[in-house]
Amino acid sequence: MGKYQKLLDEIYHRKSDDPDKWDFEKYAFTTELSSIPRKQSKYSDAKSSIQNRLILFRESKFIQSFPVIILACSNYIRNDEKNREIYDTFRVEFCPEYGSKEGKYLFWPHFDDINAPRKLVIHTRQFSLRYMNQEDREWLINEMASVIRKHLAKLGLI
To answer: What's the CA gap between 50 and 36, in Å, rounded?
Structure first.
């Protein structure tokens, strides 16, 4: 089963009778952060492409309208003292109390307003990492699903 399909199923607590049924695209939109169509891209080329995409994302009403955005791109973008790429693009701040606290595959949630959040942006590694074992991947998906589910429930979307 696709990793994002699994995440969707965990968010909505769904168990499919048909394990080959995929309906992820019915409920979510996906795009790449880099516009370089290569299996492995040179970091400098990808970084340049990503900067252009971040501008597009910042200016896109469509992208900005989503209540949950997952940036599964590892360290290709940052939100630290030096680089405020996530904040500059989505106007969200890191919220450590909602993030993963253990394990080697972490995720970093960002909210637009911690008291009344309308937008959740999660920054994490790609789910398809070859060296991530199944147990770690399951843990990451379950933890992220829990945070996303709580956010969507607060918005009255589930």
So the answer is: 9
Cα(95)–Cα(13) distance, rounded to whole angstroms?
A: 25
Rounded to whole angstroms, how far apart are CA atoms 133 and 4? 16
Global pTM reads 0.84
Q: Kindly list the distances between the CA atom of residue 128 and the CA atoms of 108, 124, 147, 155, in Å, as whole numbers in the listed order.
A: 18, 12, 20, 30
For residues 53 and 47, give the distance between their C-alpha atoms in angstroms, rounded to a whole number. Answer: 10
Burial 55-79 (b: 16+ CB within 10 A, else e): eebeeeeebeeeebbbbbbeebbeb
Specify the 3-state DSSP secondary structure of 157.
coil
Q: Give residue-wise pLDDT tens across range 86-118.
A: 999 999 988 876 665 566 667 889 999 878 889
CA distance 143 to 145: 5
CA distance 105 to 101: 10
- Ordered strands of the 120-124 beta sheet: 68-72, 120-124, 107-111, 93-94
